[in-house]
UniProtKB/TrEMBL annotation:
One cellular-component annotation, GO: membrane
Lipid bilayer topology: Multi-pass membrane protein
Assigned protein family: Belongs to the MAL family.
Subcellular location: Membrane
InterPro entries assigned to the protein according to its UniProt record, in alphabetical order: Marvel, MYADM-like
PANTHER family noted in UniProt: MYELOID-ASSOCIATED DIFFERENTIATION MARKER MYADM FAMILY MEMBER (PTHR17068), MYELOID-ASSOCIATED DIFFERENTIATION MARKER-LIKE PROTEIN 2 (PTHR17068:SF5)
Domain MARVEL: 13-149, 154-298
The organism's place on the tree of life at top rank: Eukaryota
Pfam families found in the cross-reference section: MARVEL
Name of the molecule in the record: Myeloid-associated differentiation marker-like protein 2
Length: 305
């Protein structure tokens, strides 16, 4: 018996809108993994492995989150639970959306493959469930999101959610850089890579401090730290967004047009375009973050002893 007369299990983990969203995530994630393992398949390159890794990782983490929430054991962890769960839900939404685009592009065809129409049908079902899973994770983000008059963790604010998106976009940039982008040919493009790495590292530090509940450990007030860092990131990304296209697409340093002999999937010019596009996207995200950071009322968390 519980000597304090409380309940060990959290009924709201099941009988609530948030609980329904997480149960949907578990059901859809389990369905996707089962169908891919049974018949749909994911072999044929790194793209299939990536999609399977996303679905398995999200399903495993969602299982842990649901179990800890239902048993109230999350109170034993040295983390800010609300910040952790909303940050994970936002990241899972982005990962699921990516997998929902990548998998059908590389595995779904209108005609039946050599293995028969059953495989194609399973792959279509996997895509549908993956899209539904994206909506389920997105629903959790919406339900956890900050609303006027409601005190929530930093990661549930627009600024906090933008941090997750910024980190995700930076990972796309790093992937394009690693895919034969030839960034080492010029000092200026190496500078751009340093900018991407520094901003990503600082964004990661902000997320880790928030999720771990250690924002009070900073010598500088957390709200000022966030604003100063975001302003610095805007300036750095602004410079990189100008420098990268000049040294990659100007005729003096590169090529403004895609070479006709460039192989599909391994073309340095394509990688340079991806880096340029997502540099501007992240610049816009950091500008929006800077604007929203001015409107947040911070409640500093004291470090746990």
């Amino acid at each position: 018996m519980n000597p304090q007369g409380g309940q060990y299990l959290n009924k709201a983990a099941v009988f609530s809108s948030l609980g329904a969203a997480r149960l949907s995530q578990l059901a859809l994630g389990c369905s996707v993994v089962a169908m891919v393992s049974h018949s749909a398949g994911y072999s044929g390159g790194s793209y299939g492995v990536f999609c399977m890794a996303v679905w398995c990782a999200c399903f495993g983490m969602t299982t842990v989150v649901f179990f800890l929430d239902a048993t109230r054991l999350h109170a034993c962890l040295p983390v800010s639970w609300d910040n952790l769960t909303v940050a994970f839900a936002a990241l899972a939404t982005l990962m699921y959306v990516t997998a929902s685009v990548v998998y059908p592009v590389y595995f779904v065809r209108a005609e039946c493959p050599y293995a028969g129409c059953e495989v194609r049908n399973f792959r279509v079902a996997v895509t549908v469930c993956s899209i539904a899973g994206s909506l389920a994770y997105g629903a959790e983000v919406i339900l956890s999101r900050a609303k006027p008059g409601r005190v929530v963790g930093y990661m549930a604010t627009v600024s906090g959610l933008l941090k997750v998106v910024q980190g995700f976009v930076a990972c796309i940039i790093f992937g394009a850089l690693a895919n034969g982008s030839e960034y080492s040919r010029h000092v200026a493009t190496i500078y751009c890579v340093v900018v991407y790495a520094v901003c990503f590292a600082m964004t990661t530090v902000v997320v880790i401090l928030t999720v771990s509940g250690r924002t009070g450990c900073l010598k500088l007030p957390f709200d000022r730290f966030v604003v100063v860092y975001t302003l610095l990131a805007v300036l750095l990304y602004l410079s990189a967004s100008v420098v990268w296209p000049v040294f990659c697409f100007d005729r003096k340093y590169g090529s403004p047009e895609r070479p006709s002999s460039c192989p599909r999937g391994r073309c340095p010019w394509d990688s340079k375009v991806v880096v340029a596009v997502f540099s501007f996207i992240n610049l816009a995200l950091y500008v929006a973050d800077l604007v929203y950071s001015q409107r947040i009322r911070f409640v500093t968390q004291q470090p746990r002893v």
